[in-house]
Amino acid sequence: EVQLQASGGGLVQPGGSLRLSCAASGFAFSRFGLSWVRQAPGKAPEWVSAINPTSEFTSYIDSVKGRFTISRDNRVNTLYLQMNNLKPEDTALYYCQFGASRGQGTQVTVSS
Q: pLDDT tens digits for the chain (112 residues)?
């Protein structure tokens, strides 16, 4: 059974930083690309970033380029999202996603 558990969210002021983690199990983590997805209240889910199995290739939605960095550690089956210079519009529930599986999210709230 695929399990994806995101953590690291919280309340932060504009301009602040957070580092999200996603602990994965139930599949061959090191062999697959992974993504971060977010969903703001009342809005559809939005893809944020993706990374290939070897970390050679990463991609981002335009609104987070230069502020967010996706990474992974295949030794411990964990995906990360470093978020800097956070903005109120980044407020959302953040999920890690593998295929059609999207585990429990972690809430990020950016507010003064």
A: 999 999 999 999 999 999 999 999 999 999 999 999 999 999 999 999 999 999 999 999 999 999 999 999 999 999 999 999 999 999 999 999 998 899 889 999 999 9
Of 63, 42, 48, the closest CA to residue 102 belongs to 48
* Beta strand ranges found along 8-53 (DSSP E): 10-12, 18-25, 34-39, 46-51
**How does DSSP classify residue 23?**
E
Contacts of 77 (CB under 8 A, 6+ apart): 23, 24, 25, 29, 30
**What residues does 39 pair with on adjacent strands?**
93
98 bridge partner residues = 101
CA distances in angstroms from 45 to 56, 57, 110, listed in the order given: 26, 23, 18
Residues 88, 94: Cα–Cα separation, whole Å: 14
